[in-house]
Amino acid sequence: MNIRSLALVAAVVGLVVGGTAITAQAQQTSLPGPESARLKANELVVAAFMADVLNGHHGDHATLYLTPDMQWHGGTVGTVAGSANVAGLMTTVVTSIPDLHAATQDVVAQGDEVVVRVVVTGTQKGDLLGIPASGRPVRWDATDLYRLKDGRISEEWAAEDFTAFLNDTGAYKAPWIP
User: Fold this and answer.
1) What class, spelled out in words, does domain 3-169 have in CATH?
2) At a CB cut-off of 8 Å and minimum separation 6, what does 88 contact?
3) Cα 178 from Cα 40, distance rounded (Å)
């Protein structure tokens, strides 16, 4: 891990993620080896990204956490390549849903990957993914896999429940949703 990555991990001390404070205790936890320390550092980078960019509504900060060649894979939404373009996407999301909150439910790290399951809530106040602003509350589940390289996020596979988002905005009513 390089100096920039260590500085980023150190910067997350005291941030609030998914209702749980990340404290100096996470930094001081006795870890059995370098692999465990790397896993914890990767988890902290992802937690800081989510706290700052998503819950902090700072889409423009995304590039601080991303490699320049970052790729965001959104399934049927498509792939967004390049840290500046991904930051633009994040900015669109947090300005379209200005009270967005991603509540972390689970975090699993292995190798250079961190998987986070979240529940996203907010109110759609702006156009998003071609869906006009509805002014309605939205809620969806997501499971996102982040790949890290040298302490920064290099890829994300975003598995978002867009059917729930479409239903909540009134854009589409799936026949199986009451």
Assistant:
1) alpha beta
2) 59
3) 41
For residue 2, give the 3-state DSSP assignment.
coil
* pLDDT beneath 70: ranges in the chain: 1-32
* Residues in a beta bridge with 157: 73, 145
Predicted TM-score (pTM) of the model is 0.81
The per-type count for the chain, helices as H runs and strands as E runs, is 5, 8
**HEC secondary structure over 134-164:** CCCEEEEEEEEEEEEECCEEEEEEEEECHHH
Q: What is the dihedral sign for C-alpha 126, 131, 134, 138?
A: negative
Q: Where are the domains of the chain?
A: 3-169
pLDDT tens figures, 8-40: 444 443 343 444 433 333 333 444 678 899 999
Q: How far apart are CA 172 and CA 10, in angstroms?
A: 43
